[in-house]
Amino acid sequence: MPSHPADFRSDTVTRPTPAMRAAMAAAEVGDDVYGEDPTVRRLEEAIAERLGHEAGLFVPSGTQGNQIAVGVFCRPGDEVLLDANSHPVHYEGGAVAALWGAQIHPLVSTRGIFTEAQVEAAVRREDDHAPRSRLLILENTHNRGGGTVWPLETFRRAVAVARAHGLSVHLDGARLWNAEAATGLSVRSWAELADSATVAFSKGLGAPVGSVLAGSRDFIRQARRLRKRLGGGMRQAGILAAGALHALEHHVARLTEDHRHARLLAEGLSALPGVEVDLARVETNMVYADFPCPAEQAVARLREASVLAHAVGPGTLRFVCHLDVGAADVQRAVEAAGRLVADVARPTPG
Ligand SMILES: *Cc1c(COP(=O)(O)O)cnc(C)c1O
């Protein structure tokens, strides 16, 4: 049995490398609530520049970044247009309603990508009965969609329709780096079209903590207030920002490796009898595979072989590739899945 599991549960499970830890230990710091942490400032400026925005704000999580954007743009009773399978709908504890009293308006999409016509149809017209449509959120890459990338032109059109109706646009770019790695287009291509954008360092980039929220100077001024209100004002946060800066320098280019591993895994799994993988859906670092048995059973059997994955549907498992899984881990996963489906296919004795 290998000493460490092949952990495909998420790209959040990575641990900081020795070089990253050294960079964090050496970080120059100050009190960031006073605006005096030079490393945090350097990170915020670097990301704002990279995303094509005026300013940035270091936040402890992508969830907080998304919610601050909702809080700046929306008042109670306003409506937020977003994909029905998006992160704020499923994984942020109902925060759009709980924190801001805003209402979600979920759009049913294909793998997280919807059309300008859907946005056009969803925006409320001036009417005493209707909530006020205020914000459009787009997620790129799209997690529950399968790590799918928004085609730039489709993204541009959705944004244009929202803008034409006076909505603001927020980009949830927790995995925007993966979109860049998959297409060769810069993260800026999508981010500069939105009014605000978040990017994460704790997913594929392999840092322990943090996201940056970017936008106009005025937007970030308001965002700072809300960050403090939510308890996200951190003091000598340069220690964390240094991990993010290290990741930015050393872990962006290697994301294509994760995508190659995901492709290998997808092909290996789809070749197994009874396992279904939509290969067209494997655009970045994620693989969704349907197994010929209950997902919980598949997860448990893989775990016995030291392969970890999440059950995300009745027979569906999600595998995510990242910094801490290599080609040998992919091979181990395919072999373990192969033994599992062979056992499932075998008739149970007497
Ligand atoms: C992970 C993730 C976030 C933010 O997650 P945190 O765990 O709060 O940092 C936001 N959006 C998407 C699409 C994500 O996958």
Write the layout of secondary structure elements.
Layout: E1 6-7, H1 18-25, H2 38-51, E2 55-59, H3 62-73, E3 79-83, H4 87-90, H5 95-100, E4 103-107, H6 116-122, E5 133-139, H7 152-164, E6 168-173, H8 176-183, H9 187-191, E7 196-200, E8 211-215, H10 217-229, H11 238-250, H12 255-270, E9 276-277, E10 286-290, H13 295-304, E11 307-308, E12 310-311, E13 316-320, H14 327-345
Parallel strand pairs: 1-11, 3-4, 3-5, 5-6, 6-7
Antiparallel strand pairs: 2-8, 7-8, 9-10, 10-13, 12-13
Helix pairs in contact: 1-11, 2-11, 3-10, 6-7, 12-14
The chain binds pyridoxal-5'-phosphate.
Pyridoxal-5'-phosphate binds near residues 61, 202 and 211.
Describe the structure.
It is a single chain. Helix 3 packs across helix 10. The protein is of the alpha/beta class and 350 residues long. The strands form three sheets. Strands 2-8-7-6-5-3-4 form a seven-stranded mixed sheet, sandwiched between helices. It has two domains: 233 residues, Type I PLP-dependent aspartate aminotransferase-like (Major domain) (Aspartate Aminotransferase, domain 2, 3-Layer(aba) Sandwich); 92 residues, Aspartate Aminotransferase, domain 1. It is built from 14 helices and 13 strands. The model has no long low-confidence stretch (mean pLDDT 97). It binds pyridoxal-5'-phosphate. Pyridoxal-5'-phosphate binds next to helix 3.
